[in-house]
TrEMBL record:
The lineage of its organism: Bacteria, Bacillati, Actinomycetota, Actinomycetes, Kitasatosporales. It comes from Streptomyces antnestii. CDD domains: M48B_HtpX_like (cd07327). Belongs to the peptidase M48B family. The chain crosses the membrane at residues 6-39, 136-157, 172-194. This is Protease HtpX homolog.
Length: 287
């Protein structure tokens, strides 16, 4: 994970250097992108909850769910996040928020309906690990470069191509082409690196959940069950939820998805199960 973050930082430095050489309005681009980053970082919990049609539930409304979260937070010695439920039947869960004091843990009705209590505990422990490790903040900061690159493409196009300079200015067209080319390359590279980082964070959360609950087999059972159930969800519903895959416990993809593993936000089911099996063997081995 450190290597991935280092490569993203190196890419960021090179990108800013190229902008300083090619554009005179770099400062405006950075300020605009920084504003979007700030909004995404500070309001990620509200944005994600609103997009998923989730609502905060009280202890009186769902004492069982709150009870599991209470036990896990006490074991992990961490603040309790807000607990929310989404009405969708898609079996999944996600956590969001910039830190443990401003976090939301959301589960879907489909998840609550399908999982046994020990399986639900494993999934919730996985999501609480994301909160404790500030994974939302990590991914948000890591995606900052991609945000800048996307903005630069639009900014360069509208300010240079449609602005005060004439289209017949060859130097302007050359600079515009170089800026767009560099921005596209940076976005593509950061896209791959961020997804690699996301896969590492998912494996880390699986490991933390297995150690926190002491039952890797329960988490493995939940993974296997949800992977099979999601494969039976209509493709139209999966396409609607696909934009939130980076948040989900398990990606909303069917078995026949053409998405290359390089672009996936989650490790393969086989890899996650193999790690849990190894942890289970370690826990069962005498000291």
């Amino acid at each position: 994970m450190l290597v991935t973050v280092f490569l993203l930082g190196l890419l960021y430095v090179a990108f800013v250097g190229a902008l300083l050489v090619l554009l005179k309005s770099t400062f405006l681009v950075i300020v605009l992108a920084a504003g979007l980053l700030w909004a995404q970082y500070w309001f990620s919990d509200r944005i994600a909850l609103y997009a998923m049609h989730g609502r905060i539930v009280t202890r009186e409304e769902n004492p069982q769910l709150h009870g599991v979260v209470d036990r896990l937070c006490a074991t992990a010695d961490m603040p309790k996040p807000q607990v929310a439920i989404s009405g969708t039947d898609l079996p999944n869960a996600f956590a969001t928020g910039r830190n443990a004091d401003h976090a939301v843990l959301c589960v879907t009705q489909g998840l609550l309906r399908r999982l046994e209590p020990d399986e639900l505990e494993g999934v919730l422990a996985h999501e609480l690990s994301h909160v404790a490790h500030r994974d939302v903040a990590v991914i948000t900061v890591a995606s900052f470069l991609g945000v800048i690159a996307g903005i630069v493409v639009r900014f360069a196009f509208y300010s240079e191509m449609l602005g005060g300079r004439r289209r017949t200015d060859q130097n302007t067209l050359i600079v515009l082409g170089v800026v767009v080319g560099v921005s596209v390359a940076v976005y593509a590279i950061s896209f791959v690196l961020i997804r690699a980082l996301s896969r590492y964070r998912e494996l880390a959360a699986d490991r933390a959940a297995a150690l926190l609950t002491g039952r890797p087999s329960a988490l493995a059972s939940a993974l296997t069950k949800l992977d099979g159930d999601i494969a039976r969800i209509p493709s139209e519903d999966l396409r609607t939820a696909r934009a939130f895959n980076a948040f989900y416990f398990i990606p909303a993809l069917n078995k026949n998805s053409p998405l290359p593993r390089l672009f996936s936000t989650h490790p393969s089911l086989e890899k996650r199960l193999a790690q849990l099996a190894a942890i289970s063997a370690d826990l069962g081995r005498p000291a």
